[in-house]
Design goal:
It contains 16 helices and 27 strands. It is of the alpha+beta class and 599 residues long. The protein folds into two domains: 187 residues, no CATH class; 396 residues, Glycosyltransferase (Alpha/alpha barrel), CATH 1.50.10.10. The chain has an eight-stranded antiparallel beta sheet with strand order 5-6-7-10-16-14-13-12, with helices on one face. It has a four-stranded antiparallel beta sheet with strand order 1-4-11-15. A three-stranded antiparallel beta sheet has the order 25-26-27. A hairpin with a 3-residue loop joins strand 12 and strand 13. The longest helix has 21 residues. The two termini are 39 Å apart.
């Protein structure tokens, strides 16, 4: 996480969920950071290199102009493997004149438990933790190490570099090697974008969102994290501060479903393998969330020595949502497997058989638990309830399982699943609909509205012209929309009354308005939310409805996923739920039609 003034404010190495090396976003004074700045700076500006995740910061100073290019190396080796070392490169290039820089290198390992010890050699500074678990890191550079540690000004006479690595390098780092790895990394990202099926409108924002979702994927296992940060507050100064550096099956499955539909089947295959490796036996149940290596127990701990972002305490690591029952996750996972089966057409036989076993195992589990109360999509920590969204996603799971069964030739099993799906649907229509409120409600018997009911349209639970669906959208718009932003719900929960809107729900509302024929209102809301992305085109989880300030963990995968879904709907009439729509993407010989074609 790099600020607009070229300071690394948050970094965990070697993994997403490792203890931080820099954490100034969680404690301004003692969190640690790594900042490069110019002496006598007149102007700075920042942007990504075209269609890559390489960040460029340009400094215009009285003595000259230079730029810093920040990235993590990623490219294919000569053996065809992806090289993705846990390291940051900070390349400095002189554009004109003789500028001077100041380097503020303030590492604070292990969530800033204590000052580190430095060990300097000719080309390397070793950073050694002195409190907490032992760890060490290596900073390689062609600049004066002592001036870096002391913070003295350094005159730039040629191109320079910093390479901050978790591993000690076995080969010398020099400008040529750094340059080659930069060019390979740039080529990797340009090629990845080229291989992505993209709509014509809002193209660059969609590309930025796709790249952001890719960055949330752990290459080694295929896990997809919700966000790369912890404890950035939903409400500034409040206690709704959570660790999102884990793989929620719900969020990850929806992101992978998008990858499948936009041409990245290899990435989707890794995630499918991640799930298959969690459900090795037929009695194994899927968890709500996992660590990036498949860990199931993610005990929540508060770090009392950190002040939190703008004094928003507590700072938490781990997430106790792993202890909850959330019955909606089966539907999101089954939807992903459904799309994977249909778009991929045929997987390897052994993988197909494993996936079919998972489908059958999930169906059996849903048949046992769909009538039970749970904690719901919003992970409320109070008493479990019969959440309508969880019931609806159980219907999705059975409906998609039936379609998968039909696809693989299991017609009797398909009929069984479809019969069960009808039973669940009838139960929802009977108990989840409120005549008094003329809307589907949050849970059976509730008087609360819930924005997740908007997803009934997304998944095809009811037709867009169904009066109950139209009325639900209008009631949610009336009660949960403020200044064109949508709240998940507005009643108090375990932590008080929500104050900020949920970005993903805003995109859900845009989609729902479009589907019921309120296109003008939908596009107005869409253009409004686009103005709230940060200068790099990134979204967080929440937004303050009066100031438009982004809050919560950042960048949030769920928000970027929903943005892309909305673009595809508004610009291509994309149908996410209809199996015939999936088949329409497939032209002769298994090739998909372009997303720019209207379905």
């Amino acid at each position: 996480m790099i600020s607009s003034d070229c300071s690394i404010e948050w970094l965990c190495l070697p993994f997403f969920d490792s203890p931080s090396l820099f954490a100034r976003i969680l404690d301004e004074e003692k969190g640690g950071y790594f900042k490069i700045s110019g002496v006598d700076t007149l102007k700075t500006y920042q942007s990504y290199i075209y269609r890559t995740v390489i960040l460029k910061t340009v400094f215009e100073t009285k003595q000259g102009t230079f730029e810093v290019r920040d990235y993590m190396p990623r490219f294919h080796t000569s053996q065809g493997q992806v090289y993705y070392p846990p390291e940051i490169h900070r390349n400095i290039r002189v554009i004109d004149g003789n500028p001077q820089i100041v380097v503020e290198f303030k590492p604070m390992p292990n969530y800033a438990l204590g000052q580190p010890r430095f060990a300097c050699s000719q080309s390397c500074i070793e950073i050694i933790s002195q409190k907490g678990d032992y760890d060490n890191f290596f900073l390689y550079t062609n600049l004066d190490a002592q001036k870096i540690i002391s913070g003295e000004p350094i005159e730039l006479k040629e191109s320079s570099f910093f390479l901050l690595s978790y591993h000690e390098k076995l080969q010398d780092s020099n400008l040529h090697k750094i340059y080659v790895e930069y060019e390979k990394t740039k080529s990797y990202w340009l090629d990845w974008v080229l291989r992505t099926d993209l709509p014509e409108k809002y193209l660059e924002m969609v590309i930025r969102s796709m790249l952001t979702l890719k960055l949330l994927t752990y290459e080694k296992t295929g896990a997809v994290i919700a966000a790369p940060t912890t404890s950035l507050p939903e409400i500034i100064g409040g206690s709704r501060n959570w660790d999102y550096r884990f793989c929620w099956v719900r969020d990850a499955s929806m992101i992978i479903d998008l990858y499948v539909r936009m041409g990245h089947l290899q990435l989707a295959t890794r995630y499918i393998h991640f799930i298959l490796n969690r459900m090795l036996l037929k009695h194994d149940n899927i968890a709500v969330l996992y660590g990036i290596n498949g860990e199931k127990e993610l005990t929540e701990i508060e770090l009392g020595h950190l002040n939190g972002y703008e004094s928003s305490r507590p700072v938490r690591i781990g997430n106790d949502a792993w202890r909850q029952k959330q019955n909606d996750v089966y539907g999101e996972l089954m939807e992903t497997m459904y799309a994977y089966f249909f778009i991929n057409q045929r997987t390897q036989m052994y993988m197909e058989e494993e996936m079919w076993t998972v489908v059958c195992s999930l169906v059996k589990y849903i048949e046992d638990v769909w009538k039970q109360a749970d904690c719901g999509i919003w992970e409320r920590r109070g008493e479990p309830k019969h959440y309508v969204h969880s019931k609806m996603m159980s219907w999705v799971a059975l409906d998609r399982a039936a379609k998968i069964a039909q696809f693989v030739g299991k017609k009797e099993y398909a009929q069984r699943c479809q019969k069960f799906a009808v039973q669940i649907k009838e139960d929802i229509l009977k108990n989840g609909w409120s005549e008094d409120m003329q809307s589907f409600v949050m849970y059976y018997g509730a008087t609360e509205l819930d924005a997740s009911a908007l997803l009934m349209l997304h998944y095809g639970f009811l037709d867009r012209k169904d009066p109950r669906m139209v009325s639900t959208v209008k009631q949610i718009y009336k009660h949960l929309v403020k200044n064109d932003f949508v709240f998940r719900y507005v009643e108090a929960d375990d932590f008080g009354i929500p104050e900020n809107a949920f970005i993903v729900c805003t995109f859900w509302m845009i989609n729902a308005l479009y589907l019921i024929g309120e296109e003008e209102k939908a596009r107005q809301m869409f253009e409004n939310i686009l103005t709230c992305a940060n200068p790099s085109g990134l979204f967080s989880e929440h937004i303050e409805v009066t100031t438009h300030r982004l809050t919560g963990n950042f960048p949030q995968g769920y928000s970027h996923l929903a943005f892309i879904q909305t673009v595809l709907l508004l610009e291509t009439d994309y149908n996410w739920s209809d199996v015939s729509g999936v088949k329409n993407w497939l032209a002769d010989h298994g090739q998909r039609q372009p997303l720019t074609a209207r379905t």
